[in-house]
Amino acid sequence: MLKKVCNKGEIPIAAIIFHGDDVVSKAYTTEKKEGRYLVHAEIQAILEMDKERYSFKTRKELQLFVNLEPCMMCFGAAIHSFIGEVYYFFESPTDGGAAWAEKTWYDNHKDSVFKLPKIYKGILSEESKKIFKNFLDISPRDGYYDWVKTLI
């Protein structure tokens, strides 16, 4: 799927939410197609999941997988949706929200109803980097290109 996304000129970021072995929702970033900036893969997958009106208990069992560390907006959406686990393939040093949250969450949210999801990082990182390198090979030199280059 991500190779097709690259060929469409989109940044190759995809998200999928599982409940156990069942796929709840999946999406990829569609900023170029839609001409909008808040259509990140994670946001779209979370919004689709939210339509199902899962219970609080079930939401804590959900797992969000994304091939790049979620930005602060997307990671915040995962927290506010009560997703229990977040898996990402490699870090986004310029805007990664998971690393920031891990460093600051417990000092500032001791009594919050919102809990930090369990965070797992580094799975399939080399495979994901290859997809981003492919994006650089076929993408025009624009702002998206410049940002992706900071990841590699």
UniProtKB/TrEMBL annotation:
**Domain CMP/dCMP-type deaminase: from-to ranges:** 1-116
What the entry lists under PROSITE patterns is as follows: CYT_DCMP_DEAMINASES_2 (PS51747)
Gene Ontology molecular function: any one:
catalytic activity
Pfam families reported in the protein's UniProt record: dCMP_cyt_deam_1
Designated name of the protein: Cytosine/adenosine deaminase
